[in-house]
Amino acid sequence: AIVVDVTPGSGAAGAGLQEGDVIIEVDGTRVSGPETVASEVRGHGVGDMQQRHADRGGSQRQRDFEMAGTD
User: Fold this and answer.
1) Under a CB-based contact definition with an 8 Å cutoff, are residues 48 and 67 in contact?
2) What residues are paired with 26 via a beta bridge?
3) Contact criterion met (CB below 8 Å) for 10 and 27
4) Ordered mean pLDDT values, 10 residues apiece, the chain (71 residues)
5) Which among 24, 29, 34, 55 would be 20 to 30 A from 5, CA to CA?
6) How far is CA 57 from CA 21, 23, 46, 48, in A?
7) Gap between the Cα atoms of 34 and 36, Å rounded
8) Phi-psi region of 20 (alpha: psi -120 to 50; beta: other; left: phi over 0)
């Protein structure tokens, strides 16, 4: 799943995810598309920690971040 937008102040922004990154795994679940990421996000509450593996320009990175709420 390609990251198309990162909300300032979000857990994703705090973890360093950037527009154009490709999320390939979330909490050990291989990502087959945006619906996989959405499903994994819905399974977590505010303050929960989540781990994602992303590819940026051919370099894979692991990102751990805290789930944030929405206003």
Assistant:
1) yes
2) 29, 52
3) no
4) 90 87 92 89 86 93 80 53
5) 29
6) 8, 12, 30, 28
7) 5
8) left
Structure tokens at 54: 């992303």
The Cα 8–Cα 3 span in angstroms is 14
The confidence score (pLDDT) of residue 70 equals 60
Nearest one of 33, 17, 26 to 53, comparing CA atoms: 26
CA dihedral 13, 19, 22, 23 (to 10 degrees): 30
d(CA 2, CA 53): 12
Type of residue found at 6: V
Token pair belonging to 10: 């979000």
- Quick one: which of 26, 8, 32, 30 has its CA closest to 18? 8
